[in-house]
Amino acid sequence: MVMKLSASILSIQHDSAIKEKISKLLNSSINYLHLDIMDGNFVANKTWEYNEMVNLLPKNIKNLDVHLMVNDVKKYVYDFALLKPVYITFQLEAVNNPLEIINLIKEHDIKVGIAIKPNTPISFLNDYFALVDLVLVMSVEPGLGGQKFLDDSVKKIEELYSIREKNNYKYVIEVDGGINDRTVSYCSKCDIIVVGSFITNGNYEERIKQLKAK
């Protein structure tokens, strides 16, 4: 599978020109627009509620990749399913019954992703590999953009790749956090990379081309 690029808007959350910058991303060669949805409880930062997100997005948009970093996962699934994203990903650590959330997302005809924090072992996902469409490795602590890539994430990516190959699982591997033109080389076994500030702090299309050339 050719590596795909999902552009995060987290780093432009407080930018007065956020609508224009989102429009610029949507007119770029990215594959997905990545929405980091935070409730201020599961992580300290708070981003957008559904109505706020609708206000920021134009009607005709690229494929959406929604990452829920929230405590009330069910509420946010119901809300953000209305945007008809390709993926809704939830944090394993936020729920008591992951299977319930997996089934809920599938009921909306949306692909299911499951994410883990840097300190959560891959083995905690063993019961869900055959059920999900995407596994997201957080290569920074969730909550803030612009953090440094955690090198231990490479081992997790390689482990996920090996598990998938050995068992013929179908999930795609996504990584999020600290990705730039240098650290992208650590993610060669990923199918989707999430990139925020590296793109939005420079010439968008030029930075995208730099990433895709690696």
Describe what this molecule looks like in 3D.
The protein is of the alpha/beta class. 29% of the residues lie in helices and 21% in strands. It contains seven helices and eight strands, in the order E-H-E-H-E-H-E-H-E-E-H-E-E-H-H. It has helices spanning 18-26, 50-56, 73-80, 98-107, 153-167, 197-200, 204-212; strands spanning 4-8, 32-38, 63-69, 87-91, 111-116, 134-138, 172-176, 192-195. An eight-stranded parallel β-barrel has the order 1-2-3-4-5-6-7-8, surrounded by four helices. The model has no long low-confidence stretch (mean pLDDT 92).
How are the secondary structure elements laid out?
Elements: E1 4-8, H1 18-26, E2 32-38, H2 50-56, E3 63-69, H3 73-80, E4 87-91, H4 98-107, E5 111-116, E6 134-138, H5 153-167, E7 172-176, E8 192-195, H6 197-200, H7 204-212
Parallel strand pairs: 1-2, 1-8, 2-3, 3-4, 4-5, 5-6, 6-7, 7-8
